[in-house]
Write a structure and sequence with these properties.
Elements: H1 2-23, E1 27-30, E2 37-38, E3 44-48, H2 55-58, E4 68-69, E5 75-77, E6 83-92, E7 102-105, E8 114-121, E9 126-131, E10 147-150, E11 157-165, E12 173-175, E13 178-180, H3 182-223
Parallel strand pairs: 1-6
Antiparallel strand pairs: 2-13, 3-4, 3-6, 5-12, 6-11, 7-10, 7-13, 8-9, 8-11
Length: 224
């Protein structure tokens, strides 16, 4: 009986440890951007089924136990009928001014209906960002169709907290998140433009081919 009790106690303790690790919040320490910095292991998310939470509420101690750590390569939300909140704590260990820090979501605009979040600095300064399929490209901080904006580059600690909602597109939420430098961002934009040029070139060629085929078949039929 004592042995069984010890086994059950051990299992219970193991479960508690795993739960604690699953919700433990980690800080993303950034000291250089020679390579894109992967933020996905540091992301935590929360499911808002009624779409009524606020930033102030979710920063209070009352809601801390509701946050879950992302364990996938990048965040994937399968339910399009809820609002997903996310947060990441980032600490610049050195001044990154020479890199020009940029947070990049390498996804196409059609994939996210609404994306709203705030960058909260140590001194309480708040920078609010809004992206999404229904936001005009002219409103974006950086040129290009990717979701991208400038992050603090000075030596400091700050938090990103916000939400994404897919109720208008009914698509799953896919949010790979990286910090990149200016050069890497330009390369990403150039790569995207190259893909779009190739896509539209193929579509144009197919349209011309089908048009020529239609005219050839029409002429052959009229000759009979």
């Amino acid at each position: 009986m004592h042995l069984l009790g010890r086994i059950l106690l051990g299992l219970f303790a193991s479960i508690l440890v795993n739960l604690a690790q699953a919700t433990e919040r980690q800080t993303a320490f950034v000291d250089n951007l020679d390579q894109p910095f992967d933020l996905n292991p540091y992301l935590q998310y929360l499911i808002d089924t009624e779409r009524h939470y606020t930033v102030d509420e979710l920063q209070s101690d009352k809601f801390q136990s509701l946050w879950q750590s992302n364990t996938a390569n990048y965040f994937k939300g399968a339910d399009d009928d809820v609002r997903y909140w996310f947060r990441i704590k980032i600490s610049n260990k050195t001044d990154l001014e020479k890199f020009g820090s940029i947070l990049l979501f390498p996804a196409l605009p059609v994939l996210l209906s609404e994306l709203n979040f705030s960058v909260i600095s140590e001194n309480g300064t708040i920078k609010k960002i809004s992206f999404g399929h229904f936001n005009k490209l002219s409103r974006r901080e950086l040129p290009g169709r990717q979701y991208a904006f400038l992050l603090p580059s000075e030596k400091s600690t700050y938090e990103i907290i916000g939400w994404v909602d897919q109720r208008y597109t009914a698509l799953p939420t896919l949010m790979p998140m990286y910090i990149v430098n200016q050069e890497q961002f330009r390369a990403e934009v150039s790569k995207y433009h190259g893909i779009m040029i190739a896509f539209y070139s193929v579509m144009t060629a197919m349209l011309l081919y089908n048009g020529c085929l239609f005219l050839a078949l029409r002429s052959a039929r009229n000759a009979l």
